[in-house]
Amino acid sequence: MFTIIKFVTCVALLTAAISSSASDVAILRNGFSIRHERRDVLGAVTRLYTAADASGYVDVSTDQIDHFEKDFSVPPPATKREIPKNLDEIINTISDRHHLDPDLINSVIHAESAFNPRAVSPKGAQGLMQLMPGTASQLGVRNAFDPHDNVEGGTSYLRQLLEQYNFDLIKALAAYNAGPHRVQRYRGVPPYYETRAYVARIVREFNRKKLAEQKASSAAKNAQSKTKGHPRATVKQASVPETSQQVTR
């Protein structure tokens, strides 16, 4: 029975790859779904093009695709949005809206994708903040390879996790990497080397950014004090000590 189903699915994939031009949704066996404009079957891999101009795509094992459905969802009305000049502006604007430190978001992006907006992990996570298709769909992210949409979705998700864990940054980062269910199961950071190294790397880099910021601020304050005879007001800073479990803003 499984062989027959697999054969029929493959035939459907081949047919759809040739004739389909409208948006479809690939329903995966793990429950995730991926919206795409067109697709090509490349042997054991099916390439799902997430943009009409083929600028973004996701490769999925053909045997992991259960079936395809037409996308009958109504796209949101087009809104004119001023495109930020660069990624720093995107991160700063979105971080401010979600009341998170932009240095934290930068550290997460560095760990997730090394600032590659087209990054795709072996597990299918996409874009700058490596959103899984199911998570991106739940967050309302229509194009995970668009820097603005991806950072908006990833930052919103991280904010949700921080609120869920009472702003315990360590648990929130662990959940971002391994999933909230694993954090709940182990009542903290799961005993996975990848997750522990991931959390440590982000905290270490974030701390380094804050330390450099503090030194620069202190140097500027001392210089101004010498030239003008009075110190400049210090700016509010957020930091996460290596031994702390909390993040503040």
Offer a quick outline of the entry:
By secondary structure, the chain is of the alpha+beta class.
Name the descriptors.
6 strands; 249 residues; alpha+beta; three-stranded antiparallel sheet; disordered C terminus; 8 helices
SSE topology sketch:
Layout lengths: L1 H18 L4 E5 L4 E4 L1 E5 L2 E5 L7 E5 L3 E6 L16 H11 L4 H12 L19 H6 L8 H18 L4 H10 L1 H7 L6 H36 L21
Antiparallel strand pairs: 1-2, 1-6, 3-4, 4-5
Helix pairs in contact: 2-5, 3-8, 5-6, 6-7, 6-8
Describe the protein's architecture and organization.
- The protein has 249 residues and is of the alpha+beta class.
- The protein has 8 helices and 6 strands; from the N terminus they run αββββββααααααα.
- It has helices spanning 2-19, 87-97, 102-113, 133-138, 147-164, 169-178, 180-186, 193-228; strands at residues 24-28, 33-36, 38-42, 45-49, 57-61, 65-70.
